[in-house]
Amino acid sequence: MPELVSATGVMEPPAIPQRKRRGHWQAVRRRLSRSPLFYLSATLLVVMVGMAAVPALFATADPHDCDLGRTLADAGAGQWLGRDLQGCDVFSRSVYGARASLGIGIAVSLVTGLLGGAVGAAAGYFGGWVDATLSRITEIFLAIPLLLGASVLLTLFGTSGSGTWTVIIALSVHGWPQVARITRSSVLEAKQQDYMLAAAAIGCSRLRALARHVVPNSLGPWLVVVTTNLGVFITYESIISMLGIGLRPPTISWGQMIHDAQARFLEAPLPLLGPAVFLSVTVLAFILLGDVVRDALDPRSHS
Q1: What pTM does this model have?
Q2: Buried (b) or exposed (e) across 269-278, using 16+ Cβ within 10 A?
Q3: DSSP H helices in 158-218
Q4: pLDDT of residue 300
């Protein structure tokens, strides 16, 4: 057993948890490197992120260069998915729409992950009245369906308020409770482990124990839910834009394109199917990545 007293006479936490934690993450990396689904989902996401970051590399046509004389034109040379109701190139707009849709999904996932993680960690670790208060607040937000709550907020903001940041705020306000509940459960389990008893025995402060032992050993479930939520929030953004209460022109998003094309779908299906395919591939890639990460963190969950 390692010594708990250093050469300077200062009490130190045992090193075993840190070594076990490093070994755990090394095993996770090995499992990921052996998974074909990891490489498939990662490749798809790299392509989609590349589209969002540098769309001009994937589409040469200007998405705002529209010709009403070519409304609903069929696919042909230079326009792989034809043109929409405004005479705009569907493929080009689908590529450029990745920036708004992916950007909102990533931003909401980060905000809800950090907020929900902080609330869940505080509730699970400190317990008592802190846990009771934060759990009741979480349950109140959980009682409101995310899509309904976000739609109400966006409707209250009105047409002038449906910008990118407004959509991010509306989805974030109702999207963090699930992360909080999962993080709380993970922290409750982590703080019952032997290394927490050892840390308490040597006089380690509660905040230091939380930062050094509980949080690192609770990251697995948090990481899985945040990764999976990326696809979920991209879907929600597309739904609210498709309903006409999300992003509006001149911003281009997949949901907005689907909203504009649905009325003429039977006459011209490509303006709707184009962004729908981009959306489906992106969401599928995030879901696959979340499943692969979950299985790598806990191989027993696959059985």
Answers
A1: 0.81
A2: ebbbbbbbeb
A3: 164-175, 177-190, 194-201, 206-209, 215-217
A4: 54
